[in-house]
Amino acid sequence: MFLSFIRIIKFSLQDIGRNIWLSLVTIIIMVLALFTVNMLLVVKVIGGTAVDAIKEKIDVNLFIKSNAVEDEILALKAKVSRLEEVRDVVYVSKVEALENFKRNHADNPEILESLRELGANPMTPSLVIRPNSLDEFDNLINKINAFDDNIIESRNFSNYKVMLNKINTITEKVANAGLLLSGIFIFITILVVYNSVRVAIYTHRREIVIMRLVGASRWFIQMPYLLSGVVYTIFGIAIIMGLFYPFLTLLQPYLETFFVGYNVNLINYFYSQAHIIFGLQFVGVAIVNIIASQLAVRKYSRV
Amino acid sequence: MIKYYNVSKIYSKNIKALDRINIHIKPGEFVSLVGQSGTGKTTFVKTLIGEEKADQGKIVVGGWDITNIGQREIPVLRRQIGVIFQDFKLLPKKTLFENVAFAMQVCGGHPRKIKKIVPHVMKIVGLNNKMNRYPQEISGGEQQRAAIARALVHRPKILLADEPTGNLDSLNAHEIIELLLRINKFGTTVLLVTHNREIVNRLRRRVITIDNGRVVIDQEVGKYML
Questions:
Q1: ipTM of this predicted complex?
Q2: Which residue of A has its CA nearest to B106?
Q3: Does one domain contain both A7 and A69?
Q4: Would you list the domain boundaries of chain B?
Q5: Does residue A213 sit at the B interface (CB-CB below 8 Å)?
Q6: Rounded to a whole number, what is the distance in Å from the CA of A229 to chain B's nearest CA?
Q7: What residues pair up with B61 in beta bridges, in sequence order?
Q8: Contact between residue A7 and residue B106 where contact means Cβ atoms under 8 Å apart
Q9: Which residues, listed in sequence order, are joined to residue B96 by a DSSP beta bridge?
Q10: Count of other CB atoms within 10 angstroms of residue A204
Q11: Nearest chain B alpha carbon to A210
Q12: Domain of A97?
């Protein structure tokens, strides 16, 4: 049994070697399919990071009148904190608001000069409210709108939902396009693997005739061609791993520039999840290749 | 050894390749199966090695009813029947040794056994000094000898020779027949399928003549009658 298995591997490698150009084309098509699948994953990770980044920034600002007493503000803060939709509430005093403003406009001397000319602190205190989740955002706004406290000067509800929806839509569209592209490449892979195995069988038709004649089992005759599908997969996965990590290394600096202050490290992601990502891809592509090989073997190995 | 009971093979309404054939071949016999082209000889060979199934009747080989043989059992049957053909069916990129060894390799033969048996059968067919030659480097007669060596590696009970001299000149053809007779002397049943009148007449062995899918003559010491 072990001997037969070794011989099957040997015959399979011989098949691949004797049709080297066809084997190369098969592997290249498979690499293209795998590259598309992995790019899909990259888009998903980047999209997820972008959405998380925006979610982190979602807050509601309640601006308090300048003359409000601190106790009243803290009472309002406590009242808001008790809402079930609220994760936390931060009280930003007039002084802190001014400091934040100065820090944010440190590189704009005209604004800072205007502030100095005013002579007094023009900022108002505020409560920065962060929701538990985006789904509860609308409820939270309704409840805050319902507050009729005379120390509230104004309310600021930026429409983060629209932005998030846009990102989700873009990510979804890219993912769908990628999915379609992956589907096309996988279909081409099936055709190419099918054709490679068909040609391999044609090249070896004389051997197959002799094998059948001298009493080789059907399993022994067909296995090398099925194994070829697995060998193509091994080469395909190895090449995609060899190509994809350098590609991610090139992409990483651009992502870091784009997502300043956020942890978006694709290389780490692909390293830590390598066994799952490439393991699943190996299993998936191997199944596709074995099915394609099986179809070709069934049809053409009856020489 | 080979028993055909009322075996028929019908390809279409009007084409009966085999028509209620009854043949009994005893172990160790040397039998010539003769007939003109298209009379059913090839179909007989195909039914014997499990390539075609009979539509009617019963086929028994070495006590084994192979009439409805399953796909998985065909390799076992073929290891018991050595087959040689007119076109030798040797692999041009393998040496004679490799060609013969190939038959054992694909059936799971151990390398040690292969190293022992292949030179032995090569010696039987008289090619022990040409084992490293390629098929194109030797004569047609020698190529057929190599094919016989390959057919013998599984120590078959039956050697089926389908037109083995069809591509050979008379001298080489005579040598091949001599070799088949020698193998028959060792106890192997030999079934020679041919339409070579000269060879059949010179053999003076049992001759079964097929015409239109039927056994028309079966003589213990026969001649080519058609």
A1: 0.87
A2: A216
A3: no
A4: 2-219
A5: yes
A6: 20
A7: B2, B64
A8: yes
A9: none
A10: 23
A11: B89
A12: 59-157
Residue where a domain terminates, one of A104, A131, A157: A157
Specify the amino acid at residue A102: K
Chain A positions touching B106 (Cβ under 8 A) are: 7, 210-211, 214, 216, 220-221
- What is the rounded average pLDDT for all residues in chain A? 84
- For A257, other C-beta atoms within 10 Å of its C-beta total 8
Nearest CB to A210; choose among B79, B89, B110: B89
A229 and A277 within one domain = yes
Judge if A47 and A64 occupy the same domain.
no
Fold annotation for B2-219:
Rossmann fold (3.40.50)
Distances (CA, A) of A291 to A11, A139, A182, A191: 19, 52, 18, 11
Residues of B in contact with A207 (CB under 8 A): 91, 102
Q: Mind listing the pLDDT tens digit for each residue in A161-205? A: 677 677 778 778 877 887 888 788 788 888 888 888 888 888 888
Last residue of a domain, one of A157, A178, A208: A157
Residue that the structure tokens 């005759």 belong to: A221
In this structure, the answer to whether residues A114 and A235 fall within a common structural domain is no
Q: Do A214 and B108 touch (CB under 8 A)?
A: no
* Closest to B2 (Cα-Cα) out of B75, B67, B69, B60: B60
One domain, residues A63 and A199: no
Q: Please report the sign of the dihedral spanned by the C-alpha atoms of residue B1, residue B6, residue B9, residue B14.
A: positive
pTM score > 0.80 for this model?
Answer: no
**What separation in angstroms does the CA of A55 have from each of A52, A58, A257?**
5, 5, 19
Domain count, chain A: 2
Residue for token pair 């899918």: B213
Provide the token pair at A276: 């799952």
* Together in a domain, A126 and A197: no
B89·A206 Cβ contact <8 A: yes
Q: Does residue A251 share a domain with residue A200? A: yes
Distance from CA of B225 to the nearest CA of A (A): 31
Out of B107, B110, B150, name the one closest to residue A216 (CB).
Answer: B107
Same domain flag for A240 and A295: yes
More confident call, A22 vs B97: B97
Q: How many CB atoms lie within 10 A of CB A29?
A: 21
